[in-house]
Specification:
Number of domains: 2
CATH topology of the largest domain: Rossmann fold
CATH superfamily of the largest domain: P-loop containing nucleotide triphosphate hydrolases
CATH class of the largest domain: Alpha Beta
Number of helices: 12
Number of strands: 20
Largest sheet: 7 strands, antiparallel
């Protein structure tokens, strides 16, 4: 088993398994994986499908009552990749409670929503404390040998607001090609619940109850929710790569030394790729100061790099530039926010791109493979390892965003 969607209920887990099911590199066991009993214990009858990334969903596996099943899966594959889908918790308790009422004929025998919110009552798992997601994520992460590589956190709100970018991050996490997957309806269950405006006071109380846990959760998983590094494969065809390599060499021909690099206007190159570049960029970005940004265009300034054998690039952070390649003022309405790096050839050895939290702390390494693109925020520290054999040709583009007012 390669991956498992483990939680939380009513957080889009069925949507995720449906969309992954359509990917040609994936085999899923769907909603209800086969189970058999051994000495009175229920065990999943799951087998790896040859040549496929294989997985299933069980949104209750994140809870302590199912700890032995999670332990069993990790014994079978210590590198198991785990996907956890989350939701704003006051919205979660409202949805899960009313989901549990579906099909109940005599509602007088069931706790009311007031009982659940104000008095800690439970209706088949719909309990206020079960929405303190961080309390369940901590022990789960403690079980994983390499949590940064094995755990993917997704918020339903992200899937709704920026479907394509969120799915690209998921496909990258699972090592899958960036093929278009059919967009699943926002709620594949299509259940009809009472209007939220009937529960305004209860939902306000629930938000207050969850506030401290949400702050802890955001601190706990900040690396997942801040702009990360996403590999998009394939982005260019082989023929496109061969077309652009001579352009790179021509643009850097006046540079000296084993590392030839220049940032110059290249409108004709940008026009060829602009639509494709914008299609993979986040459709909305909120910076650490809370300012929102919307994608505007691709800068005409293109960074062309040609690495000869033995060359490398030290740890650095890219500057935001104006049209004259000068450092941009911070108060400008339109600014570079993301970069997209395009690998035009595969290096025989070395030349990998390293991304750093701090100068010595590498959190992601991407290999130089022809046709692949790497999307990252412009403030991300990064470096390039020494090209041991062969050469390396790349182009990088700046995605400019405009302030959202």
């Amino acid at each position: 088993m390669d991956f498992c969607i483990v939680g939380f209920p009513k957080c889009g887990t069925r949507t995720l398994i449906y969309l992954l099911k359509d990917h040609p590199q994936v085999y899923t066991y769907g909603d209800h994986p086969p189970i058999y009993e051994v000495h009175g214990e229920r065990i999943y009858d799951l087998k790896k499908v040859s040549g496929k990334v294989t997985g299933f969903k069980h949104p209750g596996l994140v809870y302590p009552r199912n700890e032995k099943y999670m332990d069993y899966l990790l014994r079978q594959n210590p590198s198991l990749k785990i996907i956890v889908s989350l939701r704003e918790p006051s919205d979660w308790i409202w949805a899960f409670y009313h989901y549990r009422l579906l099909g109940v004929k005599d509602l007088s025998r069931v706790h009311t929503f007031d009982d659940v919110v104000y008095h800690g009552k439970e209706v088949a798992g719909a309990k206020l404390s079960n929405g303190q997601f961080v309390d369940f994520l901590k022990p789960l992460m403690a079980k994983l040998p390499n949590p940064k590589e094995q755990l993917f956190l997704m918020r339903v709100e992200d899937l709704q607001s920026d479907y394509n970018y969120t799915i690209r991050r998921l496909l990258d996490f699972l090592g899958l090609d960036n093929l278009k997957v059919k967009q699943v309806a926002e709620n594949v269950n299509r259940h009809k619940y009472p209007p939220k405006d009937q529960f305004t006071k209860q939902l306000f109380y629930a938000r207050e109850y969850y506030a401290a846990g949400q702050r802890e959760l955001e601190e706990f998983v900040i690396d997942q929710w801040s702009p990360g590094v996403t590999v998009i494969k394939p982005f260019l065809t082989e023929s496109e790569c061969q077309r652009f390599i001579p352009i790179v060499k021509e643009r850097v021909s006046k540079c000296k030394g084993p590392l030839k690099t220049t940032v110059i206007p290249a409108k004709e190159v940008v026009e060829l790729l602009e639509d494709r570049l914008l299609s993979v960029a986040p459709t909305f970005y909120t910076d650490p100061q809370g300012q929102g940004w919307l994608p505007n265009d691709v800068s005409e300034l293109v960074h062309f790099c040609f690495y000869e054998e033995g060359s490398e690039f030290p740890v650095h952070r890219d500057r935001r530039l104006d049209e004259n390649a000068e450092t941009l003022r911070e108060d400008v309405e339109i600014q570079d926010q993301f970069k997209i790096l395009l690998y035009l050839n595969s290096t025989n050895e070395g030349g990998e791109t390293r991304f750093h939290k701090e100068k010595e702390n590498v959190f992601r390494v991407t290999q130089c493979i022809a046709g692949q693109a790497v999307l990252f925020h412009i403030d991300t520290l990064h470096s390039v390892g020494k090209v041991v054999k062969g050469t390396k040709s790349i182009m990088s583009f700046r995605i400019r965003y405009i302030k959202h007012k």
